């Protein structure tokens, strides 16, 4: 318990240092603290898969941190500025975009993310998909005026396409959630230059919905589609709530997940980028297909024959209060959208 507390506090500390710093060295320090704090949490199960995942994560994050430090140092070399908002040299901007893309798992640097989520426990996967992506996203927001719009748009559309396409053929729920994360990152990045506030709203709502799904899966110990199929016969209420949360993550109205997609498409149309808005909206249909498949498995399908996985006869029927709150927010927050839009 003491070790877990130390690692959790280090995660919070690293995130706080990064998002509140003006100097590149402090931002880099925060990212390193984050990486070192999450590694023991990934490898705590002592399974070979978990050890492999933590090794891969360390190598990718160390490479990305080195690139980030190199980009900031080269910018300081050419301009004499260590301030995060003063990133003006073109080569440094490109290097920073590459480094942050590796940290986030954007296409074409996405290969590590599904493998690491597959090797981690559900709660660690939730940390990797939400909290660990917050500091790099903030760094992108701070440097957004200097970044290359064309490069970001290409990476965003590629992420939305690949996240939807690769998720179609998966049966492991953690891998499906990983490709869902890559697809949502595409939505966040495409609007970054034009409206950074929208990127933050999208990130918050994505984190909320993903947390609700992971908490639900954790309370029923569900890792694969066959286990999900037997959920309705054990906890029908939670299965119905999970279906709504999945459809919210897919972005179907009148659920909460529709709000960021609606605002992003509206903003892209205002910026006269109708083709880009149409393309990313069509690509989200790929993701909708596997969300619908998950929702279908959770609520409508019952396993027709005996499956190879171990039956959970004694399922924990007590649902955590936090899970209930997260599910409610991630499905019913859309009526509050006028309030969110009036925030200055």
Topology:
Elements: H1 2-19, H2 24-42, H3 48-79, H4 90-104, H5 112-119, H6 122-129, H7 134-143, H8 149-167, H9 173-190, H10 196-220, H11 225-229, H12 236-250, H13 258-270, H14 274-299, H15 321-332, H16 337-341
Q: How would you sum up this structure, described in words?
A:
This protein has 344 residues and is mainly α. It has a domain at 148-342. Helices cover 72% and strands 0% of the residues. It has helices spanning 2-19, 24-42, 48-79, 90-104, 112-119, 122-129, 134-143, 149-167, 173-190, 196-220, 225-229, 236-250, 258-270, 274-299, 321-332, 337-341. Helix 10 crosses helix 15. It is globular.
Tell me, what's the shape?
globular
* N- to C-terminal distance: 42 Å
Percent helix, as a range, is over 70%
Helix- and strand-based class?
A: mainly alpha
Largest sheet: none
Number of extended strands: 0
Q: In what range is the share of β-strand residues? A: under 5%
Number of helices: 16
Structure summarized in a few sentences:
This protein is mainly alpha-helical and 344 residues long. Helix content is 72%, strand content 0%. It has a domain at 148-342.
Features:
single chain, mainly alpha, 344 residues
């Amino acid at each position: 318990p003491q070790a877990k507390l130390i690692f959790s506090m280090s995660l919070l500390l690293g995130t706080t240092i990064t998002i509140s710093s003006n100097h590149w060295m402090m931002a880099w320090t925060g990212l390193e603290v984050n990486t070192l704090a999450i590694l023991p949490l990934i490898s705590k199960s002592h399974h070979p898969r978990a050890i492999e995942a933590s090794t891969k994560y360390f190598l990718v994050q160390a490479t990305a941190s080195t690139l980030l430090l190199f980009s900031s140092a080269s910018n300081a070399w050419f301009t004499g500025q260590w301030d995060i908002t003063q990133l003006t040299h073109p080569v440094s901007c490109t290097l920073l975009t590459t480094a942050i893309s590796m940290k986030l798992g954007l296409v074409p640097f996405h290969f590590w993310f599904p493998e690491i989520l597959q090797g981690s426990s559900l709660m660690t996967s939730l940390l990797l998909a939400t909290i660990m992506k917050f500091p790099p996203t903030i760094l992108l927001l701070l440097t957004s005026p200097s970044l290359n719009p064309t490069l970001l748009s290409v990476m965003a559309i590629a992420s939305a396409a690949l996240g939807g396409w690769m998720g179609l053929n998966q049966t492991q729920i953690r891998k499906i959630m990983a490709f869902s994360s890559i697809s949502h990152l595409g939505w966040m990045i495409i609007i970054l230059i034009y409206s950074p506030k929208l990127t933050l709203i999208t990130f918050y709502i994505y984190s909320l919905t993903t947390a609700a799904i992971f908490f639900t899966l954790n309370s029923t110990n569900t890792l694969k589609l066959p286990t999900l199929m037997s959920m309705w016969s054990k906890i029908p209420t939670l299965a119905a709530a999970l279906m709504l949360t999945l459809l919210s993550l897919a972005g179907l109205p009148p659920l909460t997940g529709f709000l960021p997609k609606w605002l992003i498409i509206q903003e892209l149309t205002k910026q006269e980028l109708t083709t880009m808005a149409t393309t990313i909206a069509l690509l989200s249909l790929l993701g909708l297909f596997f969300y619908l498949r998950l929702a279908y498995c959770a609520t409508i399908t019952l396993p027709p024959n005996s499956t190879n996985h171990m039956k959970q006869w004694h399922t924990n029927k007590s649902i955590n209060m936090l899970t209930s709150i997260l599910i409610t927010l991630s499905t019913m927050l859309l009526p509050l959208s006028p309030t969110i839009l009036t925030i200055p």
